User: What shape does this take?
Amino acid sequence: MAAVLETLTIPRASAIPSASLAPVAGFSVSRRSSLRFSDFRGLKIQSARSSALISSRSRLDRRGGRIVCEAQETAVEVPGVTDSNWQSLVLESDSPVLVEFWAPWCGPCRMIHPVVDKLAKQYAGKLKCYKVNTDESPSIATQYGIRSIPTVIIFKNGEKKDAVIGAVPESTLTTCIEKFL
Assistant: This one.
């Protein structure tokens, strides 16, 4: 389901104090009375008639439509795993499983989330992907010796096969995954 952007406020250049427009590290800023954005096709205004799919809590804009982010319609949501479903989802899985250990306050974890989401989509049907919030499920993290996050572990037949620590490039994770498919 697409997420709804309810409010977007963009200040005019004339509303920004002149001190904040001072050049920074070789960049120059010019004053303009209007802002021009490049073409971006990730957002669309959805008419009120076709908005039945979207939650009724969101507000209509002045023209009777909603602003919808279409990019989220194609995103794969990697589900979370907790202590209660760890055994059934990860250890008893017939296919290899990639598990990302993360926490909401972790900056590098937010950097690797899109990579894990992309890999989940790319390897759909061959590899199952899950995320474990180490703040909510510390016992799983302790059981597998997680001392740094993000940590990505590959499981096969219920056994830990490989681990990658840190926000690494997609190619590093792909190489790790390919060994166990």
Observations:
- The chain has a mean pLDDT of 75.
- The longest strand covers residues 159-165.
- The radius of gyration is 22 Å.
- The chain is about 25% helix and 20% strand.
